Amino acid sequence: MTNLDERTTDDEEQKEGVAGFMQGARKKALSNVEHVAEGTAAGTLPEGKLFDIATTIGDKRLEDLTVEDTTCGYCAVGCRFDVYTDGDEVLATRPTEPEKSPVNGISTCVKGKFTYDFVDSEGRLTTPLVRDENGEFREASWDEAYERVVEGFQDIKEEYGGSAMSMIASSKATNEENYLMGKFARQVLGTNTVDNCNRLCHSSTVAGLARTYGYGAASVSTEDFEQADAIFLTGSNTTEAHPVLATRIKQHVKDGKELVVFDPREVQIAEYATQYTEVRPGFDQVWINGLVRYIIENDLYDEEFVEERTRGIDQVREAVQEFTPDYVEEVTGVTPEELKSAAETITSNDRVVFGWTLGLTEHSHGTENIMAMANLAAITGNLGKPGTGVSPFRGQNNVQGGGGDMGPLPDNFPGYQSITDEENRKKFEEAWDCEIDPEPGFYTTEMFLAANEDELQGMYCIGENPSLSEPGSNHASEVLEEMEFLVVQDLFLNDTAKYADVVLPACSFLEKTGTFTNTDRRVQMVKQVIDPKGDSKTDWEILQDLANRMGREWDYDNTAEIMEEMRQLTPIYGGITQERVEEEGGLQWPCYDLDHPGTERLYTEEFNTEDGLAHLQAVGYNEPGELPDEDYPLSLTTGRVLYQYHTGTMTHPEEGIQGYNDRDFVEINPEDAADYGIEDGDLVTLESRRGEITVPAQVTARIGSGTVFAPIHFAETCVNKLTDSERLDPHARTPEFKVSAVRVTPVEGEPDVDFETREPVSGDD
């Protein structure tokens, strides 16, 4: 039996791992007296009696805790779980009742289960900050901070007009808060230049699917993955970016179903695939068009579905003629045998779901990639029936709802109602009592280009970190530094906030009530489980305070009232109220009225187009914005890792998580590593035409020769120094994150890290 001193030592060692959060929580929950009592009892009482005592003590402790169900604030899978708190700290989480957790059931990922140290992090903002006459931040009251914000915004409006203002909304915030962000931009600031992180990820999905099917969203429910005979994934590191969804897919394969994966990296989900095909990054529409051509030429397409439910097949047939198997292999590396195998897997199964993430969208031609994929799903008849459909996996917890549905966009009101439509504009002008410019504003990346041309002088940034997340981040930081007036509203003094004139402390999702919409259009409740930290406020309260100080009369008492206003203006959310969401365990849009049950699966009878048909799009050949050459011979692609999240605001404060992955790195193929004299763990310089970074190398065959991969999570590295902010998708204005021409050179010195143990090997701390 382990004595108390030995047990304490073991506990301290355990805190090095992911279980550290739970170990720390147990330490905080138990007093020293209880530890001693349990140690003594363990040596003197019968085993049965110990169980009785443990149950009694456990029940008593539970009586002292608060338990509330909520929706996860990490990715957009939409996991729900119970959160256990003592009123101040998150002590534990566990999956809630199955009827309240339709997506995840009994599962949660490592971040959703353990990673909540950020809530009480030492760096958490708990009071407003204003910049003093010496250029330094000092703490301020809310009244003083509000006065500074109102004065700054009004000065810009008076001198340059409302169109000189810009706003970046937050896909971390609730639907209700994002609705107010769009309203605040147009009604209070007088600008259409409002956008969000959706521009940097899935806006090409929205554009491509809207053109083809009518809705720019997933057509499936999560259950369709289990009902499918085959799943086709591309550009998705599912296991690391959407772990719970990946678990369901893996189980699907273990149950005897098929999985096809096309990707530049042999990501972990590919280990479960019945076919994995390595592709060169940046040419996805080539191999997708090759699949479409093979299927059409060999009469493998669903002729009845195409005839009755689509239009444009003749144009597509003509457009794909150049994408022969030999041409596809020459451009993408996909062999004729691999192309044939994938095509026959798709067409020999009755029910197929097509899934993707940013590997397909973050390109200067991402919209064409999505339209090609939409063509593939349509010509094979894999839409509108159980076990079929398209599913773009969304990354941020509320990027579907807050980033798109709620309309904090330069060209759309809530529910994707175009601002250029006069009737839409009139409806919102009457509801919001303001005039709205019929011209769309700037998209996110365009904001930074426009600021360079003195077209924007002010920015209000909520819950985003463009200093790190924008492509060509050196340029973004320069723009932020020169911005005439910048307000940042966030949990931490992040890299963007360092340039601000005023910083407003916001609340995390654990400190607020509202709704999130997940990746399959499911609106779910978010509930406050702890009190706001310090003097921080929820985003909606801050927006209301500012609106009223700028001459408006907002009088919302809670987010349910905001949801009520939003649904009356937004047809696809017309039947969704917080009361219904709570009672029914979530509702999927479109949900048109209070008697509508919601929509589990889109396009069962018709598409959301004027004629009810899917409009197939003729997609040709597009090269990446930048190709490797003699000076920059490698292609860099970027992405996420399991143990971090985006720019690290929520994960970096977690000791256990950091123990697994505390820095960026670059994956390089063994052949390339040998050519450049690089060994595993060596420090290397990665350089593009826009900047350079220094990171340790991870030599691995999971990445193909000629391509390198780097994650995006650390400010110290800031991989987006290397990416391009100027070559944008012509339809969605998405940047080219996934292909940048780079060169790699070893840095003199000893290897920096052993990638098997993740421990430093140089002897340095």
TrEMBL record:
Listed PROSITE patterns: 4FE4S_MOW_BIS_MGD, MOLYBDOPTERIN_PROK_1, MOLYBDOPTERIN_PROK_3
A cellular component term, taken from the record's GO annotations: membrane
Comp. bias (Basic and acidic residues): 755-765
InterPro entries associated with the record: Asp_de-COase-like_dom_sf, Formate_Dh-H_N, Formate_DH_asu, MoPterin_dinucl-bd_dom, Mopterin_OxRdtase, Mopterin_OxRdtase_4Fe-4S_dom, Mopterin_OxRdtase_prok_CS, MopterinOxRdtase_cofactor_BS
GO biological process per UniProt: formate metabolic process; respiratory electron transport chain
GO molecular function, one term: formate dehydrogenase (NAD+) activity
Keyword field: 4Fe-4S, Iron, Iron-sulfur, Metal-binding, Oxidoreductase
Chain positions covered by the region annotation Disordered: 745-765
Domain 4Fe-4S Mo/W bis-MGD-type: 65-123
Family: Belongs to the prokaryotic molybdopterin-containing oxidoreductase family.
PANTHER family per UniProt: FORMATE DEHYDROGENASE H (PTHR43105:SF14), RESPIRATORY NITRATE REDUCTASE (PTHR43105)
Protein name: Formate dehydrogenase subunit alpha
Organism annotation: Salarchaeum japonicum
Top-level taxonomy: Archaea, Methanobacteriati, Methanobacteriota, Stenosarchaea group, Halobacteria
